[in-house]
Specification:
The chain is an all-beta fold. It is about 0% helix and about 20% strand.
Length: about 210
């Protein structure tokens, strides 16, 4: 339906005499609904339902749909605070008792001592740290134990006793024919075995050597 107009002059032709309820100007015959609004006339801009701002029926001020609340220091419902590091991850492990520098001593820290070999005839041969003694019946190969030359069951170069600079000692069979024994077991050729004071070495069947400190 066309828009009704009240009394007053026609906006198009200026004719007067328009009365309430009249749809068409009697002077220019133009419907009032098609006429341009009169400048300065009061009009209300349409405000969409999501843009309305103002007091509502409950007395509260309506906010736009895309409005965000002012920050109040609290995290939003979907925001998760970063987890605190677990105390075990940053804890400093205390030093174990009796582990201060210099408290532990090894054999290398202590003074090195010569190893003494006691033979069946009463002979004693010392082996200084960092040195070795060859055992066998060949005087040229084993000058320190020339007294073993009478034992025909020994190999020319039968075994070797070596003392390391730190004082540790070893016994090695040099591929002898009749074997080198330690603690009653025959040693495999050319594989050093740990030697300690108090051990007994047997060369072949009848030469027993005692290890003294």
């Amino acid at each position: 339906m066309g828009e009704e107009t009240g009394g007053g002059a026609c906006p198009e032709c200026g004719s007067g005499g328009a009365h309430p309820g009249q749809l068409v100007c009697q002077g220019c015959y133009v419907p009032f609904a098609l006429m341009a609004p009169v400048p300065g006339a009061d009009r209300t801009d349409a405000v969409g339902p999501t843009d309305a701002v103002g007091p509502t029926d409950s007395g509260e001020t309506a906010q736009p749909a895309d409005a965000r609340p002012e920050p109040d220091g609290r995290p939003e419902p979907d925001a998760r605070p970063e987890p605190e590091p677990h105390p075990d991850h940053t804890r400093v492990i205390g030093r174990l008792a009796n582990t201060e520098a210099g408290s532990a001593r090894t054999r290398r820290d202590g003074p090195s001592r010569a190893l003494r070999l006691s033979f069946p005839g009463g002979q004693v041969v010392e082996v200084e740290p960092g040195r070795q003694v060859r055992l066998g019946r060949e005087r040229r190969l084993c000058p320190a134990v020339g007294f073993l030359a009478a034992h025909d069951n020994l190999s020319r170069l039968h075994a070797t006793v070596r003392v390391e600079p730190d004082g540790s000692a070893s016994l090695t069979d040099e591929g002898s024919t009749n074997g080198t024994y330690l603690h009653g077991y025959r040693l495999p050729p050319h594989e050093p075995a740990v030697l300690n004071p108090g051990d007994a070495i047997r060369l072949a069947a009848d030469v027993t050597v005692r290890v003294l400190a």
